[in-house]
Amino acid sequence: RPRQARRRRRPAGSTPNLIAVRGLAGKEIKFGVEGRAAMLKGVDLLADAVQVTLGPKGRNAIIQQPYGAPKITKDGVTVAKSIDFEDKFEDMGAQLVKSVASKTNDVAGDGTTTATVLARAIYSEGCKAVAAGMNPLDLRRGIQLAVNKTVDTLTDISRPITSKEEIGQVGTISANSDTEIGALISDAMERVGKEGVITVQDGKTLDNELEVVEGMKFDRGYISPYFITDAKTQTCEMENPLILLVEKKVSNLQQLVPLLESVIKSQQSLLIVAEDVESEALATLVVNKLRAGIKVCAVKAPGFGDNRKATMQDLAILTGGTVISEEVGMKLEEVQPAHLGNCKKIKVTKNDTIVLDGAGDKSAIDERCELIRTSVEATKSDYEREKLQERLAKLSGGVAVIKVGGASEVEVSEKKDRVVDALNATRAAVEEGIVPGGGKALLYCSTLLTEVAEKDAKNMDQRIGVEIIQRALSAPLKTLVNNAGEEGAVVAGELMKAEVAVETGFNAQDSIYQDMFEAGIIDPTKVTRTGVVDAASVAGL
């Protein structure tokens, strides 16, 4: 019998020998035509998915979400951000176009589909030129010459917005020809002014709603429900109240006794806005309200840190009062009726407070608004800018809330995307004016670039760079017309004829040629300009 090999027994508690495998993550490198072609494939795939949403007859895109129901949208940047490719080179090309859409969205808030279509057109034409042996640097210089001319032309043909109807038309076009959304935005802008804050929220009904808060509203409600004056609506309302603004906590009510006595004598109500009202002082206030009939309410000061100080100062200027602060050498016991603010009406709910018709000096309020405007221009922080604009709106105009309704969560989400786009487009139009819509403004700019190619281009390669932009500028109109089932190249050819006026374009909704301004088919100059500049800056590289 063959002898069996003796197995060596492993001592208890010992571990087997492990073989270490080192994973080496390598980089793939492609050069020249091969690299550009791989990236162009990614650019084309992403642009194909995005461009179908362009125009009044563009399609919706349905995007699978990591959780929950799919998202339905017609917003170019949302579609672009949802796309990733397994192939690294294709994904790199897609990321370039995504950055164009994102940048345009950040600056103008709309026009992301147009920017994506332009970026693809510039990049694909540029790849052909480089493959044919052109100097990339001279191509880039030619592209920049053409972009500068395009921006100047857009400024020349731009018109300022002059009426509520034009604001509604811009909103309608951006919201995919939804006149209800356009009308809602123009109403909101009319009521809160150009500097007013307009926010968009999910509604709780089937219909869209507009809620406008005039005066100053801040998100702090009554500290105790005992301050309620209307049990049915659970609110505390006061007519012509005095307003005490205190920067620190109120802990001892003895300091306020002289002031409360003078308030009782004058038979006026009192609103106390402080960092906090501590339990003992709060209990005393509640007892005096219930037993002595003093009309009083206490709320916490809005905001935090420096933002709280600034908001309290805004309240003081709006109501004509003084902020009681030890920093300026004032104590609670020294407060006189002259230090109190005043307003026509106050409404306090569980969650917020509205101050209507403050008695502050008009010139002081205007001066404060100007100071905030200067701060808005100076700040580099988006968060700080948003907070400053909110403060400015509360002081100067008011706040409008558009509540988007719908039968389902998916419908509300899709409609909300369109409302946000329309709102951004409208703000951009108010800021820089409007140009003919439907892709006509860019098509007209392209007809003026022949002169730039002949006069300003230093060599053939720069001329080719100008021609790249010239061809790319017709892409948005052709795409929009193709999406409407017409022949884009034929329509572009008709509109490029010398005898056709700048304002005349193609109404893709009704398939007719007409004056774009008269038809209400208008685009914000800022959105169109930003799309061209951003697309050229990325794709031209």
From TrEMBL:
Superkingdom classification of source: Eukaryota
InterPro entries, A to Z: Chaperonin_Cpn60_CS, Cpn60/GroEL, Cpn60/GroEL/TCP-1, GroEL-like_apical_dom_sf, GROEL-like_equatorial_sf, TCP-1-like_intermed_sf
GO MF, one example: ATP binding
CDD domains to which the protein is assigned, alphabetical: GroEL
Keyword tags: ATP-binding, Chaperone, Nucleotide-binding
GO biological process: protein refolding
UniProt-listed PROSITE patterns: CHAPERONINS_CPN60
Keyword Hydrolase: no
Family according to the record: Belongs to the chaperonin (HSP60) family.
NCBIfam families named among the record's database cross-references: GroEL, PRK00013.1, PRK12849.1, PRK12850.1, PRK12851.1
Protein name according to UniProt: Uncharacterized protein
Organism name: Odontella aurita
